[in-house]
């Protein structure tokens, strides 16, 4: 039984192909086969099949696919369930055509792969490589091209094929088959117009076939293509080959004698691979593809692996290097450059070069003294060799550059806490950023370290350990080590220790500096500039989960340009991630460590941060809802950046971006002694949360505000919050609680002699009563509110109250009176520019026109109301109006029109999580 991936995906038994129906089943089978007999997590399989947006039924569907594939493969033991996923367990080393191809290609390209004469060795290599290439039946993974998570593997297999084709051409050239080889090489160079290796082989084949002019023309075509596409000239090897063709160098002839020195024993310096390595499947596949690129490239391939401290850069590099070591027959070099050593002892590149030269058996007395001479000798030794070089823990690009080979064939993997941008820009290094493990990968790591039985027995504790360790591999490994050395202690106990220690850091000490999370973080922290270190410390005070540049600038008390520069320094050092343009975050353990470093300036920085959010939120809510009364704010502290919010759209966008931050600030501000900021921030959030129908959040923030106001003794603020709470509770149908809060608000406003506050509260009481169908009582409160607003000269709220009265008259059946009152309200609201009040008034007019039989005018008014509410972002009210519009269409016998309105309402309700979505869904099913 064999799974075939080098073309359409299928299964063969005794050489007979068997179709695997269904693209998703093929994707599951391919992902398992690509796993090379290792466990493939269910998260990885789901990603391979459905990408980033799997359905809720993905796990059940995956299990059905696995069950079906077991039948195709011949039994349950062919795909074995093994936490945290499945493993393809076909017998033998040739379970996939990819495994066979890789084995044959290694055999056909290894030195000394055949016995006997040189001619016999080359002939055997040709036979083996042709056998390997015959396994390709088309494009690899042809059926599922474009499936998330498998594209990198398809690319790697294409590069592997090209590597085999190039190696085959080289062997045939050695056998003197230059004339027969020309058509094949011409086809390959057409398909790969920038590949210098293939063009060099074609030039040599043409020259040996007596066609030197065509060989030179091939060089000129390549030179032109490189200049046009990349702005580059051909490499030195091709330039030397052109010169040799021009002078008809005898060394190009097949019969020219070649003297080769005996190769020294290949160095093998890779350190021990980590046990229980988990995750990063896509990055491993990308590295696999680089191996083939290195074999076909015209220069050394360099990959720069970067990531925050503790994310597992070294583990990934060493794990992968052991996986592919046999593809580098001339050796594997490794050095820890100590770029972020706790003692500050950064390795000099000259010292690293000395170690590499010793690895190639160079006597100590022959090692040159200077850096440049050592680098020259090093590059000379590596010329023509295939060596894997791991440069671990690099400080910067300057430390790395002298250690790069100069000729093709080698692959260099650099790991660093910095992003090594100069190396990417100047040397063309391939950047590979490492991030935290996914939740599934983190569980997989713990399972591999502690055993499936132990983790399966305490899933809740495993989930908490993953969360407390912030999915950071170093932290998870330390936690797993503590648990492994205490097998009699429950995982719940270990989780509790993480929960009870300071930010989790106290419990994450593995016994030495390399396994102490604090120590590992400190090496990167000490490498920052003074200003960068200060910014990093102060960011630890931010409540999270992320922040923008203005908030960072306010924390540090610096201008926006300086803040951007300091944030860029932290991003380059991988102590911070810019996860979306202009928004930054770091994981919880780094946040805890940063906060621990703060001593001076803590209180002032927190005050500046809260001032930034409060003043910007106040400006935003006044743009969002012109009907809200502004509250008096104290002057912001020096160094605070306040964003100038322009218009309702910009205000809504700002609230959306800062949503989680603002909620966390409201609930955490009391601990900072900032009760005044807490209640005012809660007040600024009221409109935003109300419009999105997030009433639970609204009640929670208002409750926090009331507690803060009681502590500071602000009676007017308490009146405001009681009124807001009463309105929100009434929206939820909790009328007794709502009435209590609204009565308290009335009493407080009356005691303060605040008629406008009383008027607003009467308006809210009127709304609550009309929801309860107590329309005449509601009308009395609306009329009382109007009198108070009129006496205060508040035109905007006079207009809103007129519309409320108009709505109530409609409920009492006096629709003409509604047209009169709401029509007057509309004119006033348009004059003062209150778009939200205007939207509500169009809704009242629609209801009146509808009952008076003018359905065309009613439709126009409904459309105006819906359009305005949606533009403003008030999805909850927009949905209410859409339901009413749908009801009117349905009553008029227009089922199609009703369905359109109800579907739009359903979209809004589902988006904000409103339970009324179920009622609307039932209406839709009925029509």
Automatic annotation (TrEMBL):
PANTHER family: TRANSCRIPTIONAL REGULATOR REDD (PTHR35807:SF1), TRANSCRIPTIONAL REGULATOR REDD-RELATED (PTHR35807). PROSITE patterns: OMPR_PHOB, TPR. Belongs to the AfsR/DnrI/RedD regulatory family. SUPFAM superfamilies: C-terminal effector domain of the bipartite response regulators, P-loop containing nucleoside triphosphate hydrolases, TPR-like. It comes from Dactylosporangium maewongense. The keyword Transcription regulation applies. Residues 1-90 bind DNA. Residues 1-90 form the OmpR/PhoB-type domain. This is BTAD domain-containing putative transcriptional regulator. TPR repeats lie at residues 719-752, 839-872. CDD domains: BTAD (cd15831).
